Amino acid sequence: MRRILVFLVVLVLLAGCSFVSNADNRNPKVARDLDVSQLAMAEPLAGKVVVLDPGHGGKDPGAMANDLIEKEVNLVISKYTKRFLEEEGATVILTRKNDREISLEERSEASEKNDADIFVSIHNNTNELPSIHGTEVYYNEVPYEDASNPYPEESKRLAEQIYSVLTNGAELNPMGVKDSGYNVLRNNTVPSVIVEVAFISNEDDAERLKDKNQLQQFGQLIGQGISDYLLGYHSERYASDAY
């Protein structure tokens, strides 16, 4: 009796293995679909091209205050954003990878040259009043000097998404999403924004901009905002009023 039971168990196991094997053989597409699905989850931004533009550079230092030079801070944050997006599968183009001066035209032309999906210029701010602090994000809608961005609604949505994620995630003072006629925005061919992360002229903001961990956080949050936009998410926490 025991031998019969053992024999039956072996038959059941063999039949199960055969079923799984035959199922795989009958559906080779299943394995491929699983691979594609897993890849999409690992690299959700595969196929997307993002131009990141670290503001200023070379002979143009940008804002200088509190022992900080804006061009240097912009580049560091941009590289952290680049790393984040590349880990999500995106192709990222930096308009400058080191301390060199490039024209506004070169910056905006990078979008068309690289067939980009979006353009994000990363800056830091300054003000005569040292008490002013926080984050602003600019997009272009109203024409300036007979030019305007061809995608104002998408640019605004991109600006709102980055602004929301950055100000909430890093607890930066939200100063608003604003329409502006900056050259790299109005003369671009894709949805475009300028992110003014913080104020170099403000002592508290400046201390955060001197902290490598803070710069990494800012860069990653900008990257998260970009990723959310490209994947079609939209934060409900956006507040348009400047403080």
Automatic annotation (TrEMBL):
An annotated GO BP: peptidoglycan catabolic process
Signal peptide: 1-23
GO CC list: outer membrane-bounded periplasmic space
InterPro entries the UniProt entry points to: Membr_lipoprot_lipid_attach_CS, MurNAc-LAA_cat, N-acetylmuramoyl_amidase_3
Keyword Lyase on entry: no
Protein name: N-acetylmuramoyl-L-alanine amidase
GO molecular function, one term: N-acetylmuramoyl-L-alanine amidase activity
CDD domains the UniProt entry points to: MurNAc-LAA
Swiss-Prot/TrEMBL keywords: Hydrolase, Signal
Source organism of this protein record: Perspicuibacillus lycopersici
Record domain MurNAc-LAA: where: 108-227
